[in-house]
Amino acid sequence: MKIFSYFLLLGLFYIPVSFADTSAKGVDNKMENKQSGNQGALRKCTHLLPEGHKYTISIIGTSDKTTKEVNKQFKGEFKLSSGSKKPLDKKRNEEIKPFIQCVTETVL
Fold first, then answer.
1. Are residues 45 and 79 in the same domain?
2. 55 and 90 co-located in one domain
3. What are phi and psi of 61, to 5 degrees?
4. CA distance 8 to 11
5. Cα gap 92→60, rounded to integer Å
6. What UniProt keywords are attached to this protein's entry (predicted)?
7. Mean pLDDT, consecutive 10-residue segments, the chain of 108 residues?
8. Distance between CA atoms of 63 and 47, rounded to whole angstroms?
């Protein structure tokens, strides 16, 4: 009777664990596939930047899921600067507007 109880308990434990492991693997794969669909949105926008320059792109944000107000759930900043310490001139600001619009619509 003891041996039978032991096998019964072992079987009751083993079956759910084996199913849990299988379903968890499936969830991981679905998450990876979902994430890879949006991968590269920022990279796709970089073709809109003018040639012959080096840019630094910074996106820093905070997501607040404690509030129900949609306007307050995400706060952040998006910066684009050239390789030099000087701010971008008026002409270059006009040239990068399509890039900024692309990032704003697809990434942020």
1. yes
2. yes
3. -145, 160
4. 5
5. 23
6. Signal
7. 51 47 46 55 92 90 90 88 81 92 89
8. 28
